[in-house]
What does this fold into?
Amino acid sequence: TRIDIRRMTINIFSRLENVASQRNVSLRVKPEDLDAVWVMADQDRMEQVMLNLIENAIKYGNENGKVIVHFSETKKHVEISVRDNGPGIPQEHLNRIFERFYRVDKSRSKERGGTGLGLAIVKHIINAHDTKIAVLSKPDKGTTFSFKLEKALIDQQPEKETPDPAKSAVNS
Ligand code: ATP
Ligand code: MG
It folds into this structure.
């Protein structure tokens, strides 16, 4: 389906407004003057991805910090990155954070709730979109998660969800 990921992001910002204001974190999209950003993605799944990444950035970033969702367009793709200016993720944990139930700082993560499933789901969904998620993190500078999606042409019709014949065959 063709979705405006910028608008989706702003929607998620307002859903997370309370969580963000509790930690006095400001939420921004960049560039600020951009209009819509059209990409091809599954609406519900991509909402889950953005919600997980932005929620993590708020929860594990700095108090009084900022979370920026940045869009950068090339001819055929849009790169989406979610950045915080928090404490970062130590190098030795970086390749494990996408595992189910993996949490970096057990005690600190515990007091912030959650199960450790968020990033495993994010990775699964991103891979199902035939793309990859990357993470870059620097101690005390922050963490950036990024991935690319196929651009949707402005005149491309929103696709209808087509039932998967393989699935219904299994169920019946
Ligand atoms: P859930 O998402 O299921 O509520 P969770 O947030 O702990 O729980 P993940 O989203 O998979 O689980 O994240 C795994 C761990 O990676 C977190 O517990 C946290 O330690 C670390 N982490 C994730 N995002 C960041 C970030 N932006 N900065 C620092 N650490 C992070
Ligand atoms: Mg999470």
Summary: The longest helix spans residues 43-60. Residues 52, 55-56, 114, 118 surround magnesium ion (ligand 2) (CB under 6 Å). The beta strands are 2-4, 26-30, 38-40, 66-73, 77-84, 133-138, 142-150.
